Each structure stands twice: as structure tokens, then as C-alpha cells.
Amino acid sequence: MKQILILNGPNLNLLGKREPEIYGSRTFVDYLETIEQAFPDIQIRYFQSNHEGELIDKIHELGFTIDGIVINAGAYTHTSIALADALSAVPAPAVEVHISNVHAREEFRHHSYLSAKCKGVIVGLGLLGYDLAVRYLVSLEK
Ligand code: DQA
């Protein structure tokens, strides 16, 4: 069975409560059920942390065995060379997801340290972006 890691970074534990006009009113835990139902043959591993090192540790832990990583690193996207290095260090292909259209927001959100380490980037499509990223990763040949 293929395994995909969904990794959410800081403040994404507050989805549903946090700026719903930008991020919507659905919690991620609720959305996760939809993903799991959409991919019954895929084992979805989910991890969220507000701490950069914990996100890196999870990439180290699973990145050598997992079939793909969907990463929304939140604000660490725009700051973290360490997370970018972690993605480079492991063989698992990654897709970067942002719920909001970061390019239509503040300038500091336009740059990502992670994009160059990922197969592709999905921005601004809301939570559906995670579904599309999983769909892409499971379609890849090993
Ligand atoms: C975000 C965009 C980031 O700029 C922001 O810091 C987030 C969420 C998104 O999903 O749209 O925390 O990654």
C-alpha cells in the first residue's frame, strides 16, 4: 500500500478558526476524512507542528520510506532553508501546497525556499490543493 505524508506547519492547526475569509471554515481534521475516503487504497500519514525542528524530524523519519510528501509549511515556507535542506536530503518526492493564493498577498509570501525542492506547487485552490497533490504523488511510478 502506498503511503503519503501530509505535513502541515505552524498555525495550520487553527484551520477553521483562523482568518476564515482567507483559509475557510473547515478544520483540517475534518478535511482529512474526505481525503482518506477519496484514497481508500492509500495510507495517509498526517503530521502538524508549530515547530520547525519537529517538521524536519518528521521528514527525516518518513522521507526515506514514504511514497510522497504533501507539504504546507505555513510561514516557514518563506523563511526556512533548513526545511528546504530536509526535503533535499530525502528521496520522497514532495508537492508544496498553499491554501491561499500567496502571490495575491503580501510580497514576503511570494518567495518560497521549498518550491525548488518540490516536484510542483499548488497555490490558492483551498483545501482541494491537498487532494490534488495526493492524486499526483500516487500517480508517480516508484
Ligand atoms: C499558507 C500561506 C503562508 O504564507 C502562511 O504563512 C500560512 C498559510 C497557505 O496555506 O496559504 O500559514 O501556507
Question: What attributes does this structure have?
Answer:
amino-acid biosynthesis; DHquinase_II_sf; globular; Rossmann fold; alpha/beta; 142 residues; lyase; five-stranded parallel beta sheet; DHquinase_II; binds 1,3,4-trihydroxy-5-OXO-cyclohexanecarboxylic acid
**Gap between N and C termini:** 12 Å
Instruction: Look at the structure and give the CATH class.
Output: Alpha Beta
The coarse silhouette is globular
Which strand order do you get reading across the main beta sheet? 2-1-3-4-5
Total count of domains:
1
Order of helices and strands: EHHEHEHEEH
Estimated helix fraction: 25-40%
DSSP strand content: 15-25%
Query: So what's the oligomer here?
Result: single chain
Structural class from helices and strands?
Answer: alpha/beta
| Bound small-molecule species | 1,3,4-trihydroxy-5-OXO-cyclohexanecarboxylic acid
CATH fold-level label: Rossmann fold
Organism: Larkinella knui
Family: Belongs to the type-II 3-dehydroquinase family.
Keywords: Amino-acid biosynthesis, Aromatic amino acid biosynthesis, Lyase
Protein name: 3-dehydroquinate dehydratase
In words, what does this structure look like?
Pfam families: DHquinase_II (PF01220). GO terms for molecular function: 3-dehydroquinate dehydratase activity. Catalyzes a trans-dehydration via an enolate intermediate. With 142 residues, the protein is of the alpha/beta class. It has one domain (2-139): Dehydroquinase, class II (Rossmann fold), CATH 3.40.50.9100. It has 5 helices and 5 strands, in the order E-H-H-E-H-E-H-E-E-H. It has helices spanning 20-23, 28-38, 52-62, 81-89, 128-139, and strands at residues 2-8, 42-48, 68-72, 94-98, 120-123. It has a 5-stranded parallel β-sheet with strand order 2-1-3-4-5, sandwiched between helices. It is globular. Residues 11, 72, 74-75, 77, 98-100, 102, 109 line the site of 1,3,4-trihydroxy-5-OXO-cyclohexanecarboxylic acid (DQA).
